[in-house]
Design goal:
Elements: H1 8-23, H2 32-46, H3 50-63, H4 73-84, H5 90-94, H6 99-112, H7 121-146, H8 154-167, H9 175-183
Helix pairs in contact: 1-4, 2-3, 6-8, 7-8
Length: 185
């Protein structure tokens, strides 16, 4: 079983692969050949250019768990889901970035990942307000850190940002809400 934590950009592709393995013959044996082929498929989707393909494929292969003897596609899918849910980016860790900094960066990325609003003026205004508030919280935390005023440490600043996001979740209709409303008709 791999202990490598996937980069955030791999979470969705790992979940998609898990879904495909579960949907198509989950009781069949998982093979190394399939693992390598799927790594290439994921890398091809993520690589910015053909020049980047080999490097991206190497990262994907480093993240995908080894195939255990007798492992089914369904069991492998479960392992991928656990891996895809991880939040700490491995490449940043390999650069020597500390855990508190990684946690803070992951939190900032989460705060800025705000769902798109429904195409309605009220929802768009509420969306802009959520984004502006979150950017303001992030700026306060970063300024405190850079000024040496984060006396309680990076973990506290990270927790502060998470609390602010939890206290003020997006309260507007999203594009996904509209898709769901359309599906029920």
């Amino acid at each position: 079983m791999s202990t490598t934590v996937p980069p955030a950009s791999l979470s969705a592709p790992l979940q998609d692969l898990a879904d495909r393995l579960d949907a198509r013959r989950p009781r069949a044996a998982m093979t190394e050949a399939l693992r390598r082929a799927q790594a290439l498929v994921i890398a091809d989707r993520l690589a910015a250019s053909d020049d980047d393909l080999d490097a991206v494929e190497t990262v994907v292969l480093g993240v995908l768990p080894a195939v255990e003897p007798g492992q089914t596609r369904g069991a492998y899918a479960s392992e991928l889901r656990r891996l895809g849910a991880a939040t700490v980016p491995a490449p940043a860790a390999s650069l020597g970035v500390s855990e508190p900094v990684l946690g803070l960066l992951a939190t900032i990325a989460d705060l800025l990942d705000v769902p798109a609003p429904a195409p309605d003026l009220i929802d768009e205004v509420k969306h802009r307000r959520v984004v502006a508030d979150r950017v303001g919280y992030i700026q306060l935390a970063i300024r405190a850190i850079l000024a040496g005023e984060a006396d309680l440490g990076l973990d506290w600043e990270t927790a502060y940002l998470r609390r602010k996001a939890e206290q003020h979740p997006p309260a507007y209709r999203t594009l996904d809400d509209l898709k769901g409303e359309g599906a029920g008709q």
